[in-house]
């Protein structure tokens, strides 16, 4: 058989699948070589998985009054003398199982953080695209709004807004819709971070030849912004979003600790820390300390993942 016939009947090389392409990408390669990123991702996924499976794996339901007994309040964790075996991490001041309450509270804190960041990204990306692409007075007006917003801290804006809202609607209505109020105020308070980043990308991209070609082909401004310019802004957006999730969780915990966030009947990490702070000097340290440790670990691993994403997506920092 001739060499030509052998080459003709040689099997074609299989096209790599989508998962194989992802596995062989620079980001996946960097992730496999970074033990800190791998450990942070594993811890975050473990915390998120346990919290979102709380209705299935939690020993008790902290929202069910039938499972709460005030006579069981302030029992210590299982490794401390005087504990009850059915409460592994002890109980809080209301007699709720602390392990179950932390699982439900962590889920609520993560949901608030993710939804608040989604709102921040939507507002900031929209304003940044419009300001950078249109320019002129529109750009100046929107950026001055961003400057005014940045002159106030997130907590200052949130405290004023939530205090006024609580006074207008009353404590009962505020507690019922506290999740939505927190998402709204944290989301609105942080949009300038996205707007400034996206605007800078738009100003750089709209002068390039492919944008001129898109205009010549008759594409409208909306299509150019969403289909051509926005994809080139995704790298810094991912980095900002990772950091902002941690900031949003911290903001929620801070507001709940100050009494302007989640009520005690709807446990979050912040409200648990706040509820236990009054009992820490009486010896019931676990009500505050254990949720505080969970909050610190959660924010820490998210920030470490954010640092890794920043290093990978920044060509000046990425070393392969």
Automatic annotation (TrEMBL):
Locate the transmembrane regions by residue number. Answer: 36-58, 108-136, 148-168, 174-191, 229-250, 285-306
One annotated GO biological process: transmembrane transport
* Compartment list: Cell membrane
**PROSITE patterns, from UniProt?**
ABC_TM1
**Locate the ABC transmembrane type-1 domain: which residues?**
106-306
One Pfam match, given by its short name, reads BPD_transp_1
What are the UniProt keywords, alphabetically?
Cell membrane, Membrane, Transmembrane, Transmembrane helix, Transport
> What membrane topology does the annotation report for this chain?
Multi-pass membrane protein
Write down the SUPFAM superfamilies for this protein, in alphabetical order: MetI-like
- What is a single cellular component term in the Gene Ontology annotation? plasma membrane
Q: What domain of life is recorded for the organism?
A: Bacteria
Principal subcellular localisation of the protein: membrane
* CDD domains for the chain: TM_PBP2
Instruction: Give the family this protein belongs to, as stated in its UniProt record.
Output: Belongs to the binding-protein-dependent transport system permease family.
Q: What is this protein called?
A: Peptide/nickel transport system permease protein
